[in-house]
Model the fold of this input.
Amino acid sequence: MLKIVLLDGESIGLDISPDPFRAYGELVIYPNTDPGLIAERVRDADIILTNKCRLNADNLSAADKLKLICVAATGFDNIDVPWCRAHGVAVCNVKGYSTDCVAQLTVAMALSLVMHLPEYSRYVSDGSYTASGRFNQLSPAFREMRGKIWGVVGAGNIGMQVARVAEALGCRVVVYQRHPNSFYPTVSLEELCLTADIISLHVPLNDSTRGLIGAREIELMKDGVTLINVARGAVTDETAIAMAVESGKIGAFASDVYSEEPFSMQHPFYAIKDRPGVLLTPHMAWGAVETRIRLINEMAENIKAFLAGERRNRID
Done:
């Protein structure tokens, strides 16, 4: 019987049944795995399942039975794919499973920031509304979405879903990507930064996108721009973003992803986490219940296809 090892079950959520995996072998689940324990835990594994554990030559070299790694994500920058390819280990990711969920959070963040919902909610919850004697409160000022320019950086499945919702809200959408988009105007990154009122990031992390949004791009942006990152933390210069938030150049900022997760007290965002107009969430955009059920089912289908000699979602 094949041995299947799930290294970080808590990152997927222990509330979601792993039974689809049990159809293909003996399943061993670890809630979390420290880096120093990976090599021992996968030593006799035939199949490794992981969300965020970093797998490379250091911890895979002794796994002589290893045949397949299934990544519980679309991004796979935590896997040394060239090493796997050279050693005959198949690697699968899951494409498109989180499109609706990540787009949903992106738009929720934009609406919350533009409407100043945290501030207005706090005004009521802290007793200020009751004490005011007034029937309403209209400060801080908020604006309509209609007529605003929403710049989508990266027009894959998630970016395109965000673009459709933004358009439905009355925004004019412009897109930055390597190839012209047949649905929305494709512009350079410089033009997008110069013209957009709201910018959301939806690119994978690779050599061409690392540090894509830095001090130069921020300087080009409109004063008071709204910036949202649901891609990867390292596609931005986080220090430059924190400085721009503190100076007011970036008027509103939201992020669900960070170069260091969880980020430490030394991270640039720790100093701005409580500022008005800043909305930081703990890498949860992909994690709706329905999304995670879909993820596990798709991973099980990847295992089934691999065992049948088929290529499905292969990235090796």
